[in-house]
Design a protein that fits this description.
This protein is mainly alpha-helical and 234 residues long. The chain has one domain. The chain contains ten helices and no strands. Helix 2 runs antiparallel to helix 6, helix 2 packs parallel to helix 10 and helix 3 packs parallel to helix 6. 21% of the residues are buried.
């Protein structure tokens, strides 16, 4: 399984402070949701080119991310049914696609522990103990995302190897699939718990602080200002 996994690499995005990437992800997602079709398409193209340049395995996302394509299809159908407007439907679908690309960029270029340290550094300014605990919770929650995708893919491959066909007994097949996924989830979570205990993991422990660098400020201002200008004028 290769989707939603951090991949170390030498790129500008990998070297940026995690909070810089989080803020840009939130900003661009907000603009995409309430923008013109031209802006949404332009954003999607730029993000797609960026993913290619940093060598994100897009083939694996296309192959293993069928769930997202299903969601996009459902959103498109319901939007068109409600509005009867092809342009609005295309804009909403493209915006959602851009948000998925932004999520891929964030998770593929940011290690979960770096993300936790960055968030903990900010939250600790308001409450040291609670700040690091919240950051630890976020780190463990994010770590579950690739874990869930790995498990669902493993169960699907195992069923396919056994020659099982869902359409033959749909209710039983779905029940067995869900049971298999939940069983593996509980096993992996238990293994994760034991690993954390072995490392004497303390969610309240103060962590190394991460401070933004000058390049983070320049990158954030450049991308955000350019995006806002395009949002306002196209």
């Amino acid at each position: 399984m290769n989707i939603f996994h951090f991949r170390p690499a030498q790129s500008v995005l990998h070297s940026l402070h995690p909070l810089t990437k989080i803020l840009l992800t939130l900003l661009l997602s907000s603009l995409a949701l309430d923008s013109s079709l031209l802006f949404s398409v332009l954003l999607a193209v730029v993000l797609n080119v960026t993913l290619i340049l940093i060598r994100v395995p897009l083939k694996h996302y296309v192959k293993e991310g069928k769930f997202f394509f299903l969601i996009i299809s459902v959103i498109g159908i319901f939007t068109y049914t409600h509005s009867k407007d092809l342009i609005e439907t295309a804009q909403i679908v493209t915006a959602f696609f851009s948000m998925i690309e932004l999520s891929i960029l964030l998770l593929d270029t940011t290690a979960f522990d770096d993300l936790s340290m960055a968030i903990g550094s900010v939250l600790s300014l308001f409450s040291k103990k609670k700040g690091y605990r919240i950051a630890s919770t976020i780190e463990l929650t994010l770590a579950m995302i690739p874990l869930l995708f790995d498990i669902t893919q493993s169960v699907s491959l195992a069923r396919r190897a056994r020659g099982e066909k869902m359409y033959r007994h749909p209710v039983r097949s779905v029940s067995q699939y869900v049971t298999g996924v939940l069983t593996l989830v509980f096993i992996r979570v238990e293994q994760l718990e034991l690993a954390l205990k072995a490392r004497q993991f303390d969610p309240d422990k103060e962590r190394e602080k991460m401070k933004p660098e000058f390049k983070d400020i320049i990158f954030f201002l450049s991308v955000s200002s350019g995006s806002v200008v395009l949002y306002l004028f196209i």
